[in-house]
Amino acid sequence: MKEIARYSGCFVCGQKNEIGLKARFYWDGSKAISEMTASELYAGYKDIFHGGITSTMLDEVMIKAILAQDINVVTAEMTIRFKQPVYIGDQLRFEGELTGQKGPLYLTEGKAINQNGEIVALAKGKYVRPAEELSDKLLISLEK
Questions:
Q1: Which residue of 32, 45, 94, 97 shows the fewest CB atoms closer than 10 Å?
Q2: In this structure, what DSSP letter does residue 6 have?
């Protein structure tokens, strides 16, 4: 698998962001993948992983599925369906894939799966290409 480009200061994938997740994302040829352990640093309740971090990881894995195909986009809309709680210490696998395109929108789906193979959250996302000026700014920050 090939590692997907990232920005070193990104909260999610930046390896130099001191308070970030430092997640790594890989392309298997059809989908983006990342794995992490649900850390107490990101608890929402006692022993429960914060749903906002799960959402953030799903957004990132879906956008990385598009970026891995050399298409630069930004998030336009995202929906998350939480199926069950994630507990501190759970091993999570995030998968995202590009499922289609409707006009300027790139459509994606993502899922978070725990160590028991259970889907804990599902996501759908819509992404668009940014205006040229913003696109240029985003592209120069990426590290391949």
A1: 45
A2: B
Provide the b/e sequence for 67-92 (b: ≥16 CB within 10 Å). Answer: bbeeebbeeeebebeeeebbebebeb
Nearest Cα to Cα of residue 17 among 27, 8, 28 = 8
The count of domains in the chain is 1
Assign residue 11 the CATH number of its domain: 3.10.129.10
Note down the domain range covering 109.
Answer: 2-139
Question: Domain for residue 73, yes or no?
Answer: yes
Q: Are 75 and 58 in contact (CB under 8 A)?
A: no
Closest Cα partner for 119 from 61, 23, 65, 54? 54
Structure token digits, residue 82: 């939480």
C-alpha 25, offset from chain centre: 8
Whether 8 is covered by a domain: the verdict is: yes
Q: Could you read off the pLDDT of 89-122 as tens digits, one per residue?
A: 999 999 999 999 999 999 999 999 999 999 999 9
pLDDT at position 56 over 70? yes
Q: How far apart, in Å, do the first and last CA atoms of the chain sit? A: 14
